[in-house]
Design brief:
- Strand 1 and strand 2 form a beta hairpin.
- With 235 residues, the chain is mostly helical.
- The longest helix is centred in the middle third of the chain and has 24 residues.
- It is 56% helix and 9% strand.
- The two termini are 16 Å apart.
- The strands form 2 sheets. It has a 3-stranded mixed beta sheet with strand order 4-3-5. Strands 1-2 form a two-stranded antiparallel ribbon.
């Protein structure tokens, strides 16, 4: 939850630096510009902040039918698309600390329960579906999601993404560990930048060297992949 609180804060900092023209710039999320992407982030944070909002969004998304996650994110964008950039920023700044606090309070017995619907392992239409524990969503995905979207917002803002070893480095190291566990093959990974590091898994195998953010973006389905990098990791 330390990472969660910091990530919510870093999104706010980036949004406050967004130039006026940046809000209309497209992102890697099909059909979403930076404004729509921020509406999704706000909706997800508000959903995490209170049980009432979680139940409300869940009911409406299920009523819409089709893929639940697609319906949920579409709902979040639709309900907040009329907000101005200033309103989006103000509401996100207010709800971020509450979302982190609410996530921290979820008891262990609920964290261990499986989510009712299978979730996509990656960001592609053919990504395999798998069953997640609720705690994986609360503790991991709800922090990785704004982190990954922050890479897209930084591109829209035309500014470098703030990266530090004690925050982004921890998030990336967790992604690396999960990726290695998922593919189960020997390899050496060297990823550069403030969030980077060096890892060896087993003996032999290929050596992979690349930027830390680009590594995560490829694993999320946001770039061409080959070899072990075709193993997707949820964000």
């Amino acid at each position: 939850m330390r990472l969660a609180a910091t990530e919510y804060d870093r999104v706010v900092t980036l949004l406050r630096a967004m130039p006026a023209e940046g809000w209309a710039r497209p992102t890697d999320c099909p059909g979403w510009d930076a404004h729509a992407l921020t509406a999704h982030l706000l909706g997800m944070a508000e959903m995490a902040a209170t049980m009432r909002e979680q139940l409300r969004q869940t009911r409406k998304a299920k009523k819409a039918g089709g893929n639940f996650l697609d319906a949920l994110t579409a709902l979040q964008v639709e309900e907040r698309k009329q907000l101005s950039p200033a309103q989006l920023i103000e509401r996100y700044a207010e709800v971020g600390p509450r979302a982190a606090k609410a996530r921290r309070r979820v008891p262990g017995f609920l964290r261990k329960r499986p989510m009712p619907d299978p979730q996509a392992a990656g960001g592609k239409p053919d990504s395999p579906r798998e069953t997640w524990a609720l705690g994986y969503l609360i503790d991991v995905i709800l922090t990785r999601d704004p982190w990954m979207h922050r890479t897209e917002l930084a591109a829209a803002a035309g500014s470098p993404m703030l990266l530090t070893p004690d925050h982004d480095g921890v998030i990336v190291a967790d992604v690396v560990a999960e990726w290695a566990d998922r593919h189960g093959q020997p390899c050496t990974l060297v990823i550069s930048g403030p969030a980077g590091g060096r890892w060896s898994f087993g003996s032999g195998g290929p050596s992979i060297e690349m930027d830390a953010v680009e590594f995560c973006r490829i694993l999320s389905g946001r770039g061409p992949a080959s070899g072990l990098l075709t193993t997707e990791v949820p964000f």
